[in-house]
Amino acid sequence: MSEIRIVLVEPSHPGNVGAVARAMKNMGLEQLTLVRPRRFPDPEATARASGAECVLAGARVVATLAEALAGCGFVAATTSRERDQNFRVLDVHEAAARIVEEAERAPAALLFGAERTGLTNEDLESSHALIRIPAHAAYPSLNLAMAVQIAVYEVYRARLARATPPSERGARRAPLVPLATPEELQRLYAHLAEVMRQVDFRDRTQSGTHLMARIRRFLQRAELDQNEANILRGLLTAVQQQRRAAGPRS
Question: What is the model's pTM?
Answer without folding.
Answer: 0.85
